[in-house]
Amino acid sequence: MKSGFVSIAGRPNVGKSTLVNNLMGRKISAVSPKPQTTRTRITGIISLPEAQIILWDCPGLFHTTDDFNKKLMKIAFSSLRDVDILVWIIDSTLPHHKNDEYILSVIKRMTSRTKSTILITFLLINKIDKIKKEEILPIIDYYKDQFDFTEIIPVSALIGTNVVLLKNKIIEHLPEGPLYFPEDTVTDIPEEILLSEFIREKIYLHTHQEVPYASGVVINQIRKEEEKNVLYIQADIIVNRHSIKKILVGSKGQMIKTIGMTARRDIEIYVGSQSKSPPKVYLELFVKVKENWKEDSYLMHNMGLS
Ligand code: GDP
Ligand code: MG
Fold it and tell me: How many Cβ atoms sit within 10 Å of the Cβ of residue 9?
């Protein structure tokens, strides 16, 4: 039996969550057209007869001087340590982004240190469905010169091109190891974090500019009523200013209604995949103003950020 930990890293928006979802064959992490949705570490577990792959979907990596973002980066880089395989994703439509140069320098630094356990590093060139075939080779050549990657694989996380190949390459390079989790475990993230990710994703999808960055989601209640087969969830969206609250609530409450409806649909799909008779989901959302919520250690803890 082969088993081990694989961390999926890259700057925001390159397709990390899409890849994890495709590898897992079900939706577990937030996918958004805007950057920085995945703030917390999402673990997906793939159990096969011959192997168990434990996936860490890292928050987007980028160079920062801001205190809040530094905290995010600390969480992100900590998930790169002590893994068996590091999978670094770049976007083939923007293959030389300045944050990629930064990440590459970190990878070089981490792997050159003797105490680092990462020896196997994959480079994925993603979104190849968006570029011409002849544009792929120059990107491969460029990165071949930069670092001695174990594998360089062009993929499309969205369409699934080379995803099976990737899975096989991962298994090939995993060490012999035990079953770390029971075979039927899909993820080990706390339910609250998973649910808040679904809601956070919809904030990103439906609002713009600074709104997602000024918002946090806290799950206050998850109540299962077995007789009625109902799942009741109450969550707060915490924002730092009244002007942001106004945008999130929207005219006649239209925006919060849209966020709640679309998030509830995703949650229903998720709980539906977990049970034979899926419960009806009720999601109640409130928007609350709390200045400086990012300095509140209790809130940060509840959001999985401490
Ligand atoms: P993350 O921030 O790295 O986790 O990126 P996401 O997985 O959230 O993806 C960001 C955006 O890129 C979403 O709109 C995805 O649908 C899109 N995307 C991801 N992979 C691909 C791909 O292979 N091809 C195309 N065309 N779009 C992709
Ligand atoms: Mg993501």
Answer: 25
Distances (CA, A) of 110 to 74, 80, 142, 181, 282: 14, 9, 21, 28, 45
Our measurement of the distance from residue 94's CA atom to the centroid of its chain's CA atoms, rounded to an integer in Å, reads 20
- Verify whether ligand 1 is closer than 6 Å to residue 87 (CB atom): no
Q: Rounded to an integer, what distance in angstroms lies between the CA atom of residue 170 and that of residue 247?
A: 44
Listed range (19-33, 92-106, 206-220) with the worst mean pLDDT:
19-33
Q: Is the pTM of this model over 0.85?
A: no
Four-residue CA torsion sign, 184, 187, 188, 189: negative
Regarding the beta carbon of 29 and ligand 1, being less than 6 Å apart is answered no
In this prediction, residue 134 carries a pLDDT of: 97
Which residue segments constitute the domains of the chain, with CATH numbers given? 2-173 (3.40.50.300), 191-302 (3.30.300.20)
Ligand nearest to the CA of 61: 1
Can you give the pLDDT at residue 250? 95
Check residue 149 and report its DSSP letter: -
Write the burial class of residue 301 (CB in 10 Å: 0-12 exposed, 13-18 middle, 19+ buried): exposed
* Residues 274-283: tens digit of each pLDDT: 667 778 999 9
CA of 209 to the centre of ligand 1 (A): 19
87-113: per-residue pLDDT in tens?
A: 999 999 999 998 899 889 888 877 766
Q: Is 32 in the pocket of ligand 1 (CB under 6 A)?
A: yes
- DSSP-assigned beta bridge partners for residue 234: 221, 284
pLDDT of 260 over the 90 cut: yes
